Amino acid sequence: MTLQQTVNQLKDSFSNGINRTYQSRKKHLTTLRTLVVDHEKELCDAIKADFGKPYFEAYATEILTVINEIDVHLKHLSKWMTPENAGNTITTFPAKSMIYKQPYGTVLILGAWNYPVHLTLMPLIGALSAGNTVVLKPSELAVTTSALLSKLFHQYFKQELVTVVEGGAKISQELLNQPFDKIFFTGSTRVGKIVMKAAAEQLIPVTLELGGKSPAIISEDANISVSAKRIWWGKVMNAGQTCVAPDFVAIPESLKKSFITESKKVLSDFFKNDYQIGENYTSIINVDHFDRLSNLINQSKVLLGGLKNRDTLFIEPTLIESDWDEPIMEEEIFGPLLPVVVYQKTEELIHKLNSKSRPLALYIFSDDQQFQDQIIQNVPFGGGCINETITHLSNHHLPFGGVGNSGMGSYHGLYSFETFSRKQSVLKKGFWPDPEFRYPPYEESKLSWLKRLFE
After folding, report:
1. Ranges in the chain, pLDDT < 50
2. Rounded to whole angstroms, how far apart are CA atoms 86 and 427?
3. What's residue 93's pLDDT?
4. Handedness of CA 114, 117, 121, 122 (dihedral sign)
5. Which residues are marked as active site?
């Protein structure tokens, strides 16, 4: 079956109501939950085979998050599907105004390799919850996980509801040429522009979950010990291959030495038995990414770490001394390298941050409310934390998404349901009363009355 035939089949099944009712959506979400729970170990093993992610990390960030998200949708789906009452105005009285949440139709979800289960299935939950049919395209870079997902979905789901398509850039481009009703993409800003350009040709709405240089900002009053621990926890997770990982640290000059000292202690505590790929640390996904990160290390002043092994794709967590305009500060690092830059005043810091592209995440380490407010009010970013990293995305009550180069649109929880739904307005009116006032002929007396009514 060609891709065009596949999409047509999914569109036909959508039109025939395969995922229209509350009962069918609940059934499909429950089936997805069963798939993940029953094959938890296989999924974690596949992720480990692709790039050595430890079982604990894989379970916590890829399995548990998906199960929790499904449970949220199962709990609230009936309420979310219920049409909302909307207010009326004097021009519509007497009438009843409603907002219906309708599925888009057949949607395309393009997953990412760094969290190959989480970033593929999380948007799928929203798509199924909202009543769509889906083409699911896992990342070809996580080849083992992609193959397993294809196999499992073939076993658990009808192909006319969810079809998994595997392949590289050529397949992705062919998919982008199909007449989908919505596209959801997770990945780099560069590829995001390609997706959006292709979607624009057919006026297909898109949600783009991208990345950027997410700063960790330390203020004069911060607890350096706790700050260093939480920043490095966010950085070493998945060997820094996380879209919301702290990309760099901005710190006052007076605290720089203390942060270096605490960083040594934190990493020593985290990895007491050295770095063991697949047990307590993750490898880099492939040679191309390894070489890119290795070149950044070679061009930089290393303060801590810096060991690397091309054969095993291992790169040690590395603290780097940097200036704001050095090459490592130009693009998202997406690896375990952590540049540290200094600032003197808050105003200078805000100017420097705004000279970079708008980040997906921003982390403030401070108990100074004025400092927090200055940053939050003056630096655009997708989402973030105060005195913490990464965990904001685990709260389904918070929308997760970027701004500008870091993306558009949001999801998680209710926001996932809304991302894959369109709001359809309906005004309902009876046949009586039916005043003649609004109908022609438009006499002068009618105009005078109308003006008095609204002035």
Report:
1. none
2. 9
3. 86
4. negative
5. 209, 243
CA distances from 67 to 36, 62, 73, 136 (A): 7, 9, 10, 18
CA angle 419, 132, 104 (to 5 degrees): 55
The H-assigned helical ranges of 130-270 are: 143-156, 169-176, 189-201, 224-236, 253-270
Buried b (16+ CB within 10 A) or exposed e, 424-452: eeeeeeeeeeeeeeeeeeeeeeeeeeeee
pLDDT by residue (tens digit) across 338-368? 999 999 999 999 999 999 889 999 999 999 9
What is the per-residue pLDDT for 21?
97
User: CA 15 to CA 9: how far, in whole Å?
Assistant: 10
Q: At CA 171, angle to CA 167 and CA 174, rounded to 5?
A: 165
Query: Helix or strand or coil: residue 210?
Result: coil
Query: Which H helix or E strand runs over 314?
Result: strand 314-315
pLDDT at 435: 85
What is the residue whose two structure tokens read 């307005």? 425
The tally of CA atoms less than 13 A away on the side-chain side of residue 1 is: 13
